[in-house]
Structure formats: structure tokens, C-alpha cells
Amino acid sequence: MRRVTKLATAVAATATLALTATACGESSTESSDGKKTKGVGLAFDVGGRDDHSFNEAAARGTDKAEKELGVKTKEMTAGNNETEETREQRLTSLAKAGYNPVIGVGFNYGKSVNKVAKDFPDTTFGVVDEQSHAKNVVGMTFAENESSYLVGVAAAKKTKSKKVSFIGGVDNALIQKFEAGYVKGVKDTDPKIKIEVDYLYKESDEGFNAPDRAKNMAKGMLARGNDVIYTAAGQSGAGSIEQISKKKGAWAIGVDSDQYRQKGLEKYKDVILTSSVKNVDVAVFELIKSVKEGKPLKGNQTFSLKEDGVSVATSGGYIDDIMDDINKAKKDITAGKVDVPTRP
Q1: What is the SS3 assignment for 155-215?
Q2: 3-class DSSP state for residue 3?
Q3: CATH code of domain 2-143+280-307
């Protein structure tokens, strides 16, 4: 598996077939190898661009590409519990229309991206949170367990009740990485702290688009004395954060994006302790740039703590007093002294 070595530099420098076009012009751009392309085809997971989390991070990558590289973007958004066939149709429509690269945001696109890509060998496809199984597919995966470990350290340091909790959107292998890292970080910091773990759904991807359900789950956790709640559930996390804002002394931990800085969550920012950030925007931008330059990335790209592929948000200054603890944990992880699990 290839490891992206230039990511830190890049970071520093920086249901249905419903269409949402950010730049719907039919004009084509030309890559440095002379090939015409209409721009980038971006297929969002459920929740779409404005989920204040995962999809929005990917959108920042295309926004940057539009501004700095002059490319156009066509966006399409998934619906709840849609079929593989629907995802395949969405990706096929983008490839047939001449978009290159075509990027699926989220593990749900893993099978469909790798399947459709074989029918369009001259198009570069990307998939976030899944592996590449075709020559022209770039798999972009992240060490979410590592950044989750760090916010676990923060939770352990900031809890007053010695009770913290985790809400996952869907009980699958990907979200379990967030849980595993968080629990390990809490326990390594203070083994006496009690941790409550629950998931919005066992299988349905509706768990990433169910803010009311997350709100109710957070309400119950707060009632049971949990005063720090980490929610890894896409758009559902907004519901959890809203509920936490009603409890004096409680903290929310955001995910994927720096949720303190999300405009849609601005009125709740005083309770957002930190966020476990994965730089999907950087991964997406680097893929687009590589295609634009005529040297498309290939295979699997991994983004870990070592390359700043994942990080911890410091917005608000709420964890400034414990940064020594967090930085030590980061150093121990990157040096291999701490092995962060990927399964609970």
C-alpha cells in the first residue's frame, strides 16, 4: 500500500440520481497530457455537501480545485439505503458525460467504483474510505483510529463526571475504527473512566442522516451522567451536538471536519471541545491535481497521523491546556510506541 509522503506539505499549503451542480457549465478543460475533460464528477454519500462533516470535507477539496486549478465540478448525492445498481448508475452517468476524475465519497461506493471503473479504462476513479481493486481506481483511506485516540485523551482530561460516551452512525468496520481509537485513548489516559458506546443503526446507512435519532441518544447519555460525547455519524452528529449544547458543563467532540468552524453549527460552537479531523479535502484535491497534470495517482493511498492525514482540531482554544498530553500521545503513536487498535 502506497503512503502519501507529500500530504503534510499539502495540508500546510492549504435517493437517487438527484443532481446538485456547483459548476454545471458544459465547457471542457484540458489536462497537461492534452486530454479533454468536463472536470470532476463527485458522488456524495447520504447527507450531501452540507452534512457539516464527511461530505463537506470532500467538497472543500473540489472547491479548492475549482479555485486553484480552474476545473469544474458536477455533484450528485446518494439517498438512504439505495442499491448498488443506483450507485453504479450515478457513477456511470458521470463517466459517460466526460468527467475525470470520478470520485465516490464513502465506503458505500467501494464496490460500485471498482466495478464501473473497468468499463472506463481511460477515466481515473477515486473512492474515499475504501480500497482500490482496479488499475484506474485510487483508494483513499485514513487512520481514523489514530485521531480518535487523541480526542479520547482530550475526553479523559476534560470529563468531570468520569463518564464519557461514543455514538456511531452505523455499526460497521469503518465506524468501529473511531470507537476503538477513542476507547483506547480514554482508557490509556485514565482507566477508571466509564465509557458508554452505542450505535444509531446496526446496518442501515440512514445512521449518517438521522440527527433526531442522534439527539435522542445523546439526551439519554447525558441523563446518565456522561459529560463528553464523541459522535461519528456524519450529518447525524449535528443532532447530538445540538442536544449537548442544552446541558451545562457537557462537551461534544466533532468528527471528520473541524465542526467548531462549520457555519451550520456555529450556534453550538461553545460546546464543541475538539474534532477528530480527517483531511478528505486534501486527498480529493491531490487526486484532482494529479489528473489535471496528466500523472494520475494509482492504487491505494493511506493518510495517517504521521503524514497529517488525520489530526485534532484546536479551534476555540478549549484543549490548549492539555496540548502537552495530546502532543505526547501523537508522538508515541507516530513513533510506534502506542499501537492503536482498529477494532473494539
Answers
A1: HHHHCCCCEEEEEEEECCHHHHHHHHHHHHHHHHHCCCCEEEEEEEECCCHHHHCCHHHHH
A2: strand
A3: 3.40.50.2300
Give the DSSP letter string of 4-62: -SSHHHHHHH----EEEESS-----EE-TTS-EE--EEEEE-TT-TTSSSHHHHHHHHH
Residue 56: CB atoms within 10 A of its CB come to 25
Q: Grid coordinates standing for 201?
A: 443503526
pTM passes above 0.85: no
Residues in the chain: 344
**pLDDT beyond 50 at 243:** yes
DSSP state, residue 304: -
Q: Note whether 163 and 225 are within 8 A (CB).
A: yes
Fold category of 144-278+311-334 in CATH = Rossmann fold (3.40.50)
Q: Angle, nearest 10°, between helix axes 144-158 and 323-334? A: 150
User: Does the pLDDT value for residue 163 go beyond 60?
Assistant: yes
